[in-house]
Recover the amino acids of this structure.
């Protein structure tokens, strides 16, 4: 019995591979959810770092630039996927050739795996979290000194000064 026959064997009316697909989808969703949560929580770190280095808070610009780059990346990913499928002679609703199957594997397995490993290597060198307490303290001290030198009331519209949160 071949691997394809094993996975297409039916238990009741449902092919066995459907269960594998569901388990894989759940594992993938858990991983993608954690990645997204980490990504968006880390997005504030460069904003604070930029303010720490330059004295200018550019939160709106950095956030909008991040959104723009994300949209461009999604467009490029779709284009690259189409190029690989064309290169592999993908034919919809037909049995795929070996090159078509390889193009599908490139799009859904090989390239995401390579990019995930590259992301993990890059994140290994991420050091803002080690200096973030110092960044936060320096920005708060700078804001307090600026408020004191300007003789302004240190409260904003909501009755409190915009101070960075004490925990990340």
């Amino acid at each position: 019995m071949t691997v394809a026959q094993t996975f297409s064997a039916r238990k009741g009316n449902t092919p066995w591979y459907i269960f594998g697909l569901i388990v894989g989808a759940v594992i993938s969703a858990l991983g993608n959810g954690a990645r997204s949560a980490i990504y968006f929580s880390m997005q504030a770190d460069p904003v604070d770092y930029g303010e720490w280095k330059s004295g200018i808070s550019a939160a709106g610009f950095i956030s909008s630039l991040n959104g723009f780059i994300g949209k461009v990346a999604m467009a490029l990913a779709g284009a690259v996927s189409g190029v690989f499928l064309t290169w592999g002679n993908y034919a919809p609703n037909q049995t795929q050739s070996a090159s078509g199957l390889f193009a599908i594997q490139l799009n859904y397995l090989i390239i995401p795996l390579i990019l995930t490993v590259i992301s993990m290597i890059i994140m290994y060198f991420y050091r803002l979290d080690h200096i973030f307490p110092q960044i936060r303290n320096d920005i708060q001290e700078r804001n307090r000194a600026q408020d004191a030198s300007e003789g302004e009331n240190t409260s904003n519209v909501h009755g409190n000064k915009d101070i960075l949160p004490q925990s990340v």
Notes: The chain is about 75% helix and 0% strand. Strands lie at 10-11, 14-15. The longest helix spans residues 59-87. The longest strand covers residues 10-11.
